[in-house]
Amino acid sequence: MRADHVILGVGNLLMSDDGIGIHAARELVRNPPSGVLVVDAGTDYLSALPFLEGGRKALILDAVQGGDPPGSIYRLAAADIDCRPAIGSAHATSVLEARRFLPPGSPWPEITVLGVEPSILEYGLTLSEPVAGALPRLVAEARKIIREWRNESALNANNQVAS
């Protein structure tokens, strides 16, 4: 299934806060933004590629270690993940690296990573208190980003009509 805008929840539900991206994606699926494909990708990056291929913009939700207090939310461009060793997101990086399995020249979306600083990355099925507290803010920020993208799309469409 192809969509212009995709939200990809990544992470490992068995590793406590590492599952924040999955929890957020599942929350968004309950009331998905109109016209947006929301995917619970877990740790299966290769299966996520068809959802990204051909899209215009993708939002990856993940746990991100950046050194701020647990529950802090980061908004990063894909290049920020690649270039800043202090920012760690194994899953978002893996999705970006999986692109090499696509044929050369395959369409690829502009990627934004929305991450939450984890507190606990050990075996466990629940989120820590600070990360669970960040979940509603993460979902709200994802919705805000989608609204921004829609506004950009509408502005671009209006500019093309006016030209």
> How many domains in all?
1
Span from first to last CA?
Answer: 32 Å
Sheet with the most strands: spatial strand order:
2-1-3-5-4
CATH topology: Rossmann fold
Q: Compute the CA-based radius of gyration.
A: 16 Å
Mean pLDDT: 86
Globally, the shape reads globular
Account of the protein in words:
By secondary structure, the protein is an alpha/beta fold. It has a single domain (5-162), classed as HybD-like (Rossmann fold, 3-Layer(aba) Sandwich), CATH 3.40.50.1450. It contains five helices and five strands; from the N terminus they run E-H-E-H-E-E-H-H-E-H. The protein has helices at residues 20-30, 45-52, 78-83, 90-98, 129-162; strands at residues 5-10, 36-42, 57-63, 73-77, 110-116. A five-stranded mixed β-sheet has the order 2-1-3-5-4, sandwiched between helices. Helix 1 (20-30) links the parallel strand 1 and strand 2 (36-42). Helix 2 (45-52) packs across helix 4. The protein is globular. The N and C termini lie far apart (32 Å).
Short summary:
The chain has helices at 20-30, 45-52, 78-83, 90-98, 129-162; strands at residues 5-10, 36-42, 57-63, 73-77, 110-116.
Which characteristics define this entry?
163 residues; alpha/beta; 5-stranded mixed β-sheet; globular; Rossmann fold
